[in-house]
Amino acid sequence: MALINIDTAIKRVLLLVGKIEPPRGVEILTYKRNRGVSIIRLAEDSFLVRERGYEEHEMQVSFTDLARVLKSMAKREFPRSRQVRIYQLEGPDFLDQERKRI
């Protein structure tokens, strides 16, 4: 997917995650694709959120907490980024897939 403004990325991710079926997901990456946040829908109201970059975290949250968690992770992982990349994932197996680095 093309580069998306960081201000609208979280809103777009929440819309995408609300529409997908389990076990699909969404991944937000920096321009260089070296840091990111991945969201996998496990059940109707359960999401696996994985942070990869400055810090390594993995947590399970509900949809109501997802926006708050994403905002805090975005501030930590994308501090100077103005644009990010968004990819759709077919499942948890695609989390560790290496992306092309620039």
What does this structure look like?
With 102 residues, the protein is α+β, with helices and mostly antiparallel strands. The protein has one domain (3-90): Cathepsin B, Chain A (Alpha-Beta Complex), CATH 3.90.70. The protein is 28% helix and 34% strand. It has 2 helices and 6 strands. It has helices at residues 6-19, 63-77, and strands spanning 3-5, 25-29, 36-43, 46-52, 57-61, 83-89. It has a 6-stranded antiparallel β-sheet, covered by helices on one side. Helix 1 packs antiparallel against helix 2. The chain is globular. The two termini are 15 Å apart. The model has no long low-confidence stretch (mean pLDDT 89).
Secondary structure blueprint with pairings:
Blueprint: E1 3-5, H1 6-19, E2 25-29, E3 36-43, E4 46-52, E5 57-61, H2 63-77, E6 83-89
Antiparallel strand pairs: 1-6, 2-3, 2-6, 3-4, 4-5
Helix pairs in contact: 1-2
Shape: globular
Give the C-level CATH assignment.
Answer: Alpha Beta
Relative strand content? 25-35%
- CATH topology assignment: Cathepsin B, Chain A
The separation of the N and C termini measures 15 Å
* Estimated helix fraction: 25-40%
Radius of gyration: 12 Å
Q: What is the oligomeric state here?
A: single chain
Report the structural category: alpha+beta
Q: Report the order of strands and helices.
A: EHEEEEHE
Count of separate structural domains: 1
What's the CATH architecture name? Alpha-Beta Complex
Poorly predicted spans: none
The largest pleated sheet is described as: 6 strands, antiparallel
DSSP strand count = 6
Placed side by side, the strands forming the largest sheet appear as 1-6-2-3-4-5
Mean pLDDT, rounded to whole units?
Answer: 89
- Enumerate how many helices there are, as a single number: 2
